[in-house]
Amino acid sequence: MALRVRNVAILVTIICCCFGPCLMHEEVTRVLIMSFDGFRWDYLDVAHNYGQKTPNFDRLVSEGVSIQSPGIRNAFITKTMPNHYTIVTGLYEENHGIVANTFYDPVFNDTFDMTKNSSLDIKWWRGTGEERIEPIWVTNDHHGDEHHVSGVFFWPGSEVPDFRPHHTYGPFNISVPFETRADTVVGWFTQHRDPINFGAMYYHEPDATGHKFGPLSQQVAMKIAELDGYVGYLIEQLEKAHLFQGLNLIITSDHGMQLITRSIHLDDYVDPALYTAYGDSPVLHIVPKEGHLEEIYNKLKPVKNLIVYKKEEVDPELHYKNNRRIMPLVVAAAEGFRLCKTNDTCDQTTGNHGYDNRLSSMHPIFIAHGPAFKKEFVGAPFNSVDIYPLLCRLLGIEPQLNDGSFVNIKHILSDGDDDADYTYFTFLLVGVFCGIIAVAWCFGAWRSQRVMIRPRGLDSPWRQPTLATNNFPLRTENRKPLLESEDDELA
Hints:
The chain has 491 residues and is an alpha/beta fold. The chain has 14 helices and 18 strands.
């Protein structure tokens, strides 16, 4: 009986030593990423310069990670739909295929328009190549256990039927209050059935205010203070749910904003009847009528403050040419200029975005807070495509093929100076070592048990003759058999 108890204890020890580290590694990590559309990297400074207070943003910055000037670099073109999809796929626009808010696909002979329900057709979101493309919430939901569940509130792409997360809210409605969005997502984290480990939220400001009044306006400063109140509400709800200290929260955006001062009218240089244009200011895709490509190119190329690319000539650093949805000519206005197809179709907004992603005015904000991130840390800039591998690492899921680099962003993590799996592998090695010792102990105990219960009798292979102590040969012939009681005593 004692042996059985000991063997059970040995078995439990082996299980704990070998599998305990793995079980600890599977502890649920909760991640929430939220995007404020058009939140430029320096908007907190703009608010402070107008005397506006941002205590909640300031708290997250002081307790967590922010990024030094000039913020993180997003993807060209610096528009809403492309960059939100870049964040959750880790792919540049030429690779995930959402190349603008409005674009044409020659294979489908159809136009994508973010304002129309047809934009939710899955055909737009799967990419144009053979590689599998899916947003991170799909990968997380398909991880294969009950601890990986996603909930997304209004993030662009989350309403696509075949790409919907486990929990979602839609269709998009700009009038839904921020508080409702926050309450819903916090509820998804805490609900008894299918609680989420990954959440994503989208809010449409301060983009609208920046368009209307310009990025350095008092109105934008006041809007940032209003958004700070929304962040405070979210923190309050997370604290009430006992989530805030254990949650990894990321606040970022899709692009920045630039003040518009002048206009460029294409019909001053080229007859609009010679081409079809897709997109909107400050970047247009031009499809020349047959035989007119060189003519249009040669007329537009010399125009001051206008950047004109043949598709194959687009700067490789922009990652914006290897896709059928990018048209033969890409025409972009210089920073601060609006681009008008005709004199009658000229957007008169005060601020705009979409310019070269190397311009600091186009760069978005990035703040991170939670147990995975460093404290009171100002990190070096990285690319928005790098956010995806970071999210995958935090969630413990295998990333899909992407353009990001975890190496570029790991310096913001609390264990970023070492390999992120260092602790796990340390526990694993200790567990294997303990397991080897436990197995050896178990084998020794098994051998001892076999000896103790071996068959009695000299003819047994388990029993060897006892050497005589006087060095004389032991004589066994004609020896009187031992009684059973005597055998026990000798044993």
